[in-house]
Amino acid sequence: MNDLINKIESKITLNEVEKNHILSMDTPIFHKKKEILIRQGQIAEKLFYVKNGVLRSYSISTKGDDLTEEIISSSNLFTVFESFGENKPSKLFVETVTDCELIEIPKKEYLALFNKIKEWFMFCNHINGEYLKKSSNRISSLKNLSAKHRYDNFVSENLEIAKLVPIKHLASYLGIKPQSLSRIRKHRI
Question: How far apart, in whole angstroms, are the C-alpha atoms of residue 165 and residue 140?
Fold first, then answer.
Protein backbone atom coordinates (compact mmCIF):
# COMPACT_ATOMS: atom_id res chain seq x y z
CA MET A 1 0.00 0.00 0.00
CA ASN A 2 1.15 3.55 -0.70
CA ASP A 3 2.64 5.33 2.34
CA LEU A 4 0.81 8.62 1.60
CA ILE A 5 -2.47 6.71 1.53
CA ASN A 6 -1.50 5.01 4.79
CA LYS A 7 -0.78 8.42 6.34
CA ILE A 8 -4.17 9.75 5.23
CA GLU A 9 -6.02 6.58 6.25
CA SER A 10 -4.50 6.75 9.72
CA LYS A 11 -6.88 9.71 10.22
CA ILE A 12 -9.79 9.23 7.77
CA THR A 13 -11.37 6.59 5.56
CA LEU A 14 -10.83 6.72 1.79
CA ASN A 15 -12.97 4.97 -0.78
CA GLU A 16 -11.40 3.42 -3.92
CA VAL A 17 -11.99 6.49 -6.10
CA GLU A 18 -10.34 8.71 -3.48
CA LYS A 19 -7.40 6.29 -3.15
CA ASN A 20 -6.93 6.32 -6.93
CA HIS A 21 -6.91 10.10 -6.92
CA ILE A 22 -4.17 10.12 -4.25
CA LEU A 23 -2.22 7.51 -6.22
CA SER A 24 -2.37 9.76 -9.29
CA MET A 25 -0.50 12.45 -7.31
CA ASP A 26 2.15 10.02 -6.06
CA THR A 27 4.99 11.02 -8.34
CA PRO A 28 8.10 11.32 -6.19
CA ILE A 29 10.49 14.16 -6.89
CA PHE A 30 14.07 13.80 -5.76
CA HIS A 31 15.97 16.68 -4.19
CA LYS A 32 19.62 16.82 -3.20
CA LYS A 33 20.81 17.78 0.26
CA LYS A 34 20.73 21.55 1.01
CA GLU A 35 18.23 22.49 -1.71
CA ILE A 36 15.98 25.45 -0.84
CA LEU A 37 12.34 24.48 -1.46
CA ILE A 38 10.73 27.69 -0.17
CA ARG A 39 12.52 31.02 0.22
CA GLN A 40 11.79 33.63 2.83
CA GLY A 41 9.51 36.23 1.22
CA GLN A 42 8.13 33.75 -1.33
CA ILE A 43 4.53 32.52 -1.07
CA ALA A 44 4.46 28.79 -0.28
CA GLU A 45 2.67 27.20 -3.24
CA LYS A 46 3.23 23.51 -2.40
CA LEU A 47 2.49 21.04 0.35
CA PHE A 48 5.27 18.46 0.70
CA TYR A 49 4.89 14.84 1.73
CA VAL A 50 8.28 13.52 2.82
CA LYS A 51 8.60 9.95 1.55
CA ASN A 52 12.27 9.75 2.54
CA GLY A 53 14.68 12.24 4.02
CA VAL A 54 14.66 15.22 6.34
CA LEU A 55 13.60 18.85 5.80
CA ARG A 56 13.97 21.83 8.04
CA SER A 57 12.43 25.28 8.17
CA TYR A 58 14.50 28.18 9.38
CA SER A 59 14.85 31.93 9.50
CA ILE A 60 17.81 34.27 9.61
CA SER A 61 17.86 36.59 12.62
CA THR A 62 18.74 40.28 12.40
CA LYS A 63 22.18 39.27 13.75
CA GLY A 64 22.59 36.84 10.86
CA ASP A 65 22.04 33.69 12.95
CA ASP A 66 20.42 30.66 11.29
CA LEU A 67 17.46 29.68 13.52
CA THR A 68 15.92 26.24 12.88
CA GLU A 69 12.17 26.34 13.50
CA GLU A 70 11.10 22.83 12.47
CA ILE A 71 12.70 19.51 11.58
CA ILE A 72 10.50 17.30 9.43
CA SER A 73 11.17 13.63 8.73
CA SER A 74 9.81 10.84 6.54
CA SER A 75 6.06 10.15 6.46
CA ASN A 76 5.12 13.73 7.32
CA LEU A 77 3.39 16.54 5.48
CA PHE A 78 4.91 20.00 5.61
CA THR A 79 4.86 23.49 4.21
CA VAL A 80 5.05 26.96 5.70
CA PHE A 81 1.42 26.71 6.76
CA GLU A 82 0.80 30.42 7.39
CA SER A 83 2.11 31.32 3.94
CA PHE A 84 0.39 28.40 2.20
CA GLY A 85 -2.98 28.95 3.86
CA GLU A 86 -3.12 32.74 3.79
CA ASN A 87 -1.15 33.54 0.60
CA LYS A 88 1.32 35.57 2.65
CA PRO A 89 5.05 35.79 2.00
CA SER A 90 6.85 33.11 3.99
CA LYS A 91 8.78 34.19 7.07
CA LEU A 92 10.82 31.00 6.76
CA PHE A 93 13.06 29.11 4.38
CA VAL A 94 12.49 25.38 3.85
CA GLU A 95 15.48 23.29 2.83
CA THR A 96 16.44 19.66 2.48
CA VAL A 97 18.78 18.49 5.23
CA THR A 98 19.42 15.18 3.47
CA ASP A 99 18.76 13.90 -0.02
CA CYS A 100 14.95 13.71 -0.12
CA GLU A 101 12.20 11.95 -1.98
CA LEU A 102 9.11 14.17 -1.84
CA ILE A 103 5.60 14.24 -3.19
CA GLU A 104 4.84 17.85 -4.03
CA ILE A 105 1.18 18.81 -3.97
CA PRO A 106 0.55 22.18 -5.64
CA LYS A 107 -1.88 24.44 -3.79
CA LYS A 108 -4.45 24.22 -6.61
CA GLU A 109 -4.46 20.41 -6.35
CA TYR A 110 -4.56 20.58 -2.53
CA LEU A 111 -7.64 22.83 -2.69
CA ALA A 112 -9.29 20.49 -5.21
CA LEU A 113 -8.98 17.66 -2.66
CA PHE A 114 -11.69 19.34 -0.55
CA ASN A 115 -14.13 18.53 -3.39
CA LYS A 116 -12.65 15.14 -4.31
CA ILE A 117 -12.19 13.58 -0.86
CA LYS A 118 -15.22 13.74 1.36
CA GLU A 119 -13.29 13.72 4.67
CA TRP A 120 -10.33 15.89 3.51
CA PHE A 121 -11.32 18.74 5.84
CA MET A 122 -11.22 16.34 8.79
CA PHE A 123 -7.80 15.05 7.71
CA CYS A 124 -6.46 18.62 7.48
CA ASN A 125 -7.79 19.34 10.98
CA HIS A 126 -5.88 16.31 12.29
CA ILE A 127 -2.66 17.48 10.62
CA ASN A 128 -3.11 21.02 11.97
CA GLY A 129 -3.77 19.60 15.44
CA GLU A 130 -0.59 17.50 15.32
CA TYR A 131 1.43 20.51 14.14
CA LEU A 132 0.02 22.73 16.93
CA LYS A 133 0.66 20.04 19.55
CA LYS A 134 4.27 19.62 18.37
CA SER A 135 4.80 23.40 18.42
CA SER A 136 3.25 23.73 21.87
CA ASN A 137 5.37 20.87 23.24
CA ARG A 138 8.50 22.48 21.79
CA ILE A 139 7.72 25.86 23.37
CA SER A 140 7.03 24.18 26.72
CA SER A 141 10.28 22.24 26.43
CA LEU A 142 12.28 25.40 25.65
CA LYS A 143 10.77 27.17 28.66
CA ASN A 144 10.80 24.37 31.22
CA LEU A 145 13.52 21.80 30.51
CA SER A 146 17.27 21.90 30.79
CA ALA A 147 19.34 21.66 27.62
CA LYS A 148 20.26 18.06 28.50
CA HIS A 149 16.61 17.08 28.98
CA ARG A 150 15.58 18.76 25.71
CA TYR A 151 18.26 16.81 23.85
CA ASP A 152 17.45 13.53 25.63
CA ASN A 153 13.74 13.92 24.81
CA PHE A 154 14.47 14.72 21.17
CA VAL A 155 16.79 11.72 20.79
CA SER A 156 14.36 9.35 22.52
CA GLU A 157 11.62 10.37 20.06
CA ASN A 158 13.80 10.98 16.97
CA LEU A 159 16.99 8.91 17.18
CA GLU A 160 17.47 8.54 13.41
CA ILE A 161 16.83 12.22 12.78
CA ALA A 162 19.32 13.18 15.50
CA LYS A 163 21.97 11.20 13.58
CA LEU A 164 21.18 12.91 10.25
CA VAL A 165 20.79 16.57 11.21
CA PRO A 166 23.99 18.66 11.52
CA ILE A 167 24.72 19.63 15.11
CA LYS A 168 24.36 23.37 14.41
CA HIS A 169 20.78 22.89 13.15
CA LEU A 170 19.83 20.51 15.94
CA ALA A 171 21.32 22.87 18.54
CA SER A 172 19.36 25.79 17.08
CA TYR A 173 16.13 23.78 17.08
CA LEU A 174 16.67 22.79 20.72
CA GLY A 175 17.69 26.30 21.81
CA ILE A 176 21.20 25.19 22.77
CA LYS A 177 24.58 26.56 21.75
CA PRO A 178 26.38 24.11 19.42
CA GLN A 179 29.35 23.85 21.83
CA SER A 180 27.00 22.96 24.70
CA LEU A 181 25.22 20.36 22.60
CA SER A 182 28.57 18.82 21.68
CA ARG A 183 29.39 18.47 25.40
CA ILE A 184 25.95 16.99 26.15
CA ARG A 185 26.36 14.46 23.32
CA LYS A 186 29.88 13.56 24.45
CA HIS A 187 28.71 12.84 28.02
CA ARG A 188 25.74 10.85 26.74
CA ILE A 189 27.91 8.31 24.85
Answer: 22
